[in-house]
Amino acid sequence: MNCEEVKEKIFIRTVLESFNLFPVKENRKTAFYFALDREEKFPSLSVDFVKNKAFDFGSGKSYDVISIVQMMKQCSVSEALKYLEKFDFSMQNGFQSEDKIKQYEIVKIREIQHPALIHYLNSRKVLDQKDLVKEVEYELKGKKYFGIGFFNNSGGVEIRNKYSKICLGKKDLTIIKNEVNISIEIVVFEGFFDYLTFKNLRRNENSNCDFLILNSTALLFKAEELLRDYDKISLFLDNDNNGKSAKEKIQYQYEKVEDCSLLYFDFKDLNEWFCNSNTVF
Quick check: is 280 in a domain? Predict the structure, then answer.
């Protein structure tokens, strides 16, 4: 594929999602995202799904799928094309129809039973928390799959297995409230495997805190009002650029924020640390 074919046939939404970038507000043909090259409180990047292009009202820059990759990875055109080789060439008539965007069907939801999923949970050392997730059988683009499912507050489901990391439905936060007492502390995770890990480590304790699983640091803006309700915020975010950026934003905006990533500073996240450690706390 040459540059022009790539610009026409690879959907811009898919490329943005590959960098954990999701719209702040959208309709069928357009959406607003936060800028690619700076932090901001209000989204200024307008994405036109029909033209398959984006325009940043703050900087005046225009983007296509290639220049988005160049911006995010700070790479050359040839390197961007190599990155884009992994995407399906699925554009039709300039944008995906609603039927095209939602090409999945959830066939069955049940308790975790499949040996492959049990093995995967065991490999991540969270098998004891299998009651907090579901086995989801789904059909995607005419093919049947299954995975570990974790639901968000909009009914979307994060799907994980050894080979897949996707979201079916709308991407959103997952907020889990303590049903016994009013909580003054909230514990924040980037992904649900870290939440399962935390619950596994504290399984013998009665937790009085609430939990927030971002499911993507790009969704942090949706938690801003929620976090103001708590006297203490404990962060178990990833030790990568996205996690560190989210941590800095929270530390800047709120008081009494505890950075718990120091516990696993040599690892990407809490689960990776736990899988490589016999330590409990």
Answer: no
